[in-house]
Amino acid sequence: MMAIELPPEILMIIFIYLTPSDLYTISSVCKKFRSILWPKTEISQHIWRKSRLHHIPFLNRSPPKLCTTTSGTEVMSEQQYLWLMIICEKCQFCEQKDKIKLTLYWEAKFYCCSTCLQKRTISGYKLIQGFPKVLIKFLNELPKMPGVANWEPQLYFESEAKRLLEEYNQVREYERDAWIERKESITKETKKEIKIYREFHSEFKYNFREVARKMALEIEAEDYEDKIMGLKEFKNFYCTQLATPSKFIKHTKV
Ligand SMILES: [Zn+2]
């Protein structure tokens, strides 16, 4: 008997013992497996959660409550959570595989490099031209954290702004005040949740040395922009001067 012919209740038991990566792979094997593993049902969440806790016991925190809808927030699916936390090993938009150059943005649910991120952010100045001012406070600013090169204040995620505007446009005019009030408390909660999970991901994915390397990348990008000698150039300059002291002395004499 082939695995595909097994009744769903037996398959579910087998699935629980597979790793999250295996679950991803087999969900693309056939329609039957996909129909069990892919939709966000109670059963699929149970399978993915069991697999997570069984194979990655350190990943014992449940998915964050981040997905906003007109009526409130929703818990992220186990599938998306596992994808962002462990399965995705390259930039979501390009082929960059160096994890030092990759950062997870819970705000937009991106795991990507700085170059790809830049193409997906929008400045407050540009945004305000076609965006109701009242909505700005509900957006997440690009966080200042290790690995975020070219950071500046009031940079927002374009996808988040677009989604928020769509949500706002669906609300009837006479319901807008109540919606804004509800949104204020949801935003507060979501921002708190993002902060917790940002730290959790950083500790889970990067060791101390890797965090330091991420910070060095960020400083180099900033210095490059400010036309300040980068860390590497500074090191080269310093070493050259030490290696040829006579040149240095000559200069100081003049
Ligand atoms: Zn990229």
TrEMBL record:
Every F-box domain range: 1-51
PROSITE patterns from the UniProt entry: FBOX (PS50181)
CDD domains, per the entry: F-box_SF
InterPro entries for this protein: F-box-like_dom_sf, F-box_dom
Domain of life of the source: Eukaryota
Stated name of the protein: F-box domain-containing protein
Natural source organism: Rhizophagus irregularis (strain DAOM 197198w)
